[in-house]
Design brief:
75% of the residues lie in helices and 0% in strands. By secondary structure, it is mainly α.
Length: 84
């Protein structure tokens, strides 16, 4: 699987839950989309998906101060859900 295919898969998993998502899940999914797309763009020359995963996780960790503690937990939970 390429980085682009992995990005598309992750974004599709988020989109698939939109119809039944809570407001918190919609927020977390929307927030996470940006981090996934950024990590994919930064990883486009990489061959290993693990590099992209690490970039997403680092990006989320770096943005922790932007979020309330409860929102940070929501975003982390959403990432765990779609990246599993």
């Amino acid at each position: 699987m390429t980085i682009q295919e992995y990005e598309e898969k992750l974004l599709q998993l988020i989109d698939d839950g939109i119809d039944t998502a809570t407001d918190d899940e919609l927020f977390a999914g929307g927030y996470l989309r940006g981090h996934i797309s950024l990590a994919a763009a930064e990883s486009e020359n990489e061959l290993q998906l693990s590099v992209m995963k690490e970039k997403v996780e680092q990006s989320i960790a770096d943005a922790k101060s932007e979020l309330s503690p409860s929102d940070y937990v929501l975003v982390c939970q959403m990432w765990q859900k779609v990246s599993a």
